[in-house]
Amino acid sequence: MISIAIDGPSGAGKSTVAKALAKKLGYIYVDTGALYRTIALFAIRKGAEPTNEEQICALLPQIKLDVKYVDGTQRVFLCGEDVSDKIRTNEISMCASKVSAIPAVRAFLLDLQRDMAKNNNVIMDGRDIGTVILPDATVKFFMNASEDAKARRRHKELLAKGEKISLEEVKKTMAERDKNDSARKIAPAVPAADAIHLDNSESLEKTIETAINIIMEKII
């Protein structure tokens, strides 16, 4: 199986590029961040403190998490409920960053993510795909963009979902989340040593074209 890892901070455009690549190549797109967001949603619903490791660990045995593909689109199910749209709020983003720093949470999701790559050609995006989840990925990318570009993208997404939030608040939230993700002791969000760096500040089309060319050189 061929696996493409795309890591990078929030707002860098990882999911947009990954979805486009998956469509062009006919691979399955795996949004690993959605899995952490789903655990965050469960924790919030249960009234747990996302930084309280004991509380979060106690909840894990109660979680039944499934990933299904409906018309080619990834949908995440929490205990039978499709929560794919409910996990895309700013509150969930911050909570996901906190629960993802808990080792037991990462261990809980590890096999699920790796099994997807064992059985399918995948484009998988996240924070630690190339370093931890798929260290032997066929191609590894680390994608980034300017702070303004990342904030504008994220702000546009949230407004489209009906969330009322200012651009400045989005910038603040993203900066805090990126700091948490890159500084955590377990699986920090840093580039793999052999990752190819992509700047996605300007042209999405150019980023996709560059990535496709690199992938084709590797797999042909």
Description of the structure:
The protein has 220 residues and is of the alpha/beta class. 50% of the residues lie in helices and 17% in strands. It is built from nine helices and eight strands. The chain has helices at 14-25, 33-45, 53-59, 90-99, 103-119, 129-133, 147-160, 167-183, 204-219, and strands at residues 3-7, 28-31, 65-70, 73-78, 81-82, 122-126, 139-144, 196-199. Helix 2 (33-45) crosses helix 4, helix 4 runs parallel beside helix 8 (167-183) and helix 7 packs across helix 8. It starts with a strand and ends with a helix.
Q: Looking at the structure, what is the overall shape?
A: globular
Q: Main β-sheet, in a few words?
A: 5 strands, parallel
Beta strand count: 8
Number of helices: 9
Mean pLDDT: 92
The end-to-end distance, rounded to whole angstroms, is 14 Å
Strand order of the largest sheet: 2-6-1-7-8
* SSE run: EHEHHEEEHHEHEHHEH
**Cα Rg:** 16 Å
Residues in helix, %: 40-55%
- Which structural class should the secondary elements be placed in? alpha/beta
List the uncertain runs.
none
Keywords:
globular, 8 strands, 220 residues, alpha/beta, five-stranded parallel sheet, three-stranded antiparallel sheet, 9 helices
Can you give me a brief rundown of this structure?
The chain is 50% helix and 17% strand. With 220 residues, the protein is of the alpha/beta class. A hairpin with a 2-residue loop joins strand 4 and strand 5.
